[in-house]
């Protein structure tokens, strides 16, 4: 197995998550964008600001904006193409710490 950085050259990475992955106000400087650029990777960014892991009725959250309503990470995953990437990066739960999320099961 090749553990050198060249092993990442040309590989495709899918990034799922919240603003930490997306890069909040500076997405061009997100750690994912910087890594992809440094290692010549093809980045498919699905992460968005305000995303949560646990489903929540955002309409009940006082601080929810139209931009962040319904931003569940499971939707990012379901909306990604069926092609298999070489690398998957997932980060979440930061926004789940606020409010009273409703738990639900999914398949």
Number of β-strand runs = 3
Structural class of the secondary elements? alpha/beta
Average pLDDT taken over every residue? 83
* Unreliable residue runs: none
CATH-derived architecture = 3-Layer(aba) Sandwich
Description:
This protein is of the alpha/beta class and 107 residues long. The chain has a single domain, classed as SGNH hydrolase (Rossmann fold), CATH 3.40.50. The chain has three helices and three strands; from the N terminus they run βααβαβ. The protein has a three-stranded parallel beta sheet, with helices on both faces. It starts with 11 loop residues before the first strand and ends in a 16-residue tail after the last strand. The model has no long low-confidence stretch (mean pLDDT 83).
SSE topology:
Elements: E1 12-17, H1 19-22, H2 31-38, E2 42-45, H3 73-79, E3 87-91
Parallel strand pairs: 1-2, 1-3
Describe this protein with a few key phrases:
107 residues; alpha/beta; Rossmann fold; 3-stranded parallel beta sheet; 3 helices; 14% strand
Entry summary:
This protein has 107 residues and is an alpha/beta fold. The protein has helices spanning 19-22, 31-38, 73-79, and strands at residues 12-17, 42-45, 87-91.
């Amino acid at each position: 197995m090749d553990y050198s950085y060249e092993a990442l050259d040309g590989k495709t990475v899918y990034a799922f998550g919240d603003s930490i992955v997306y890069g909040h106000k500076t997405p061009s400087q997100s750690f994912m964008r910087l890594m992809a650029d440094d290692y010549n990777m093809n980045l498919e960014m699905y992460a968005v600001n305000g995303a949560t892991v646990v489903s929540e009725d955002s309409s009940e959250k006082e601080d929810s904006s139209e931009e962040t309503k319904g931003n569940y990470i499971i939707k990012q995953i379901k909306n990604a193409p069926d092609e298999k990437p070489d690398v998957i990066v997932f980060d979440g739960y930061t926004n789940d710490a606020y409010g009273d999320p409703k738990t639900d099961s999914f398949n």
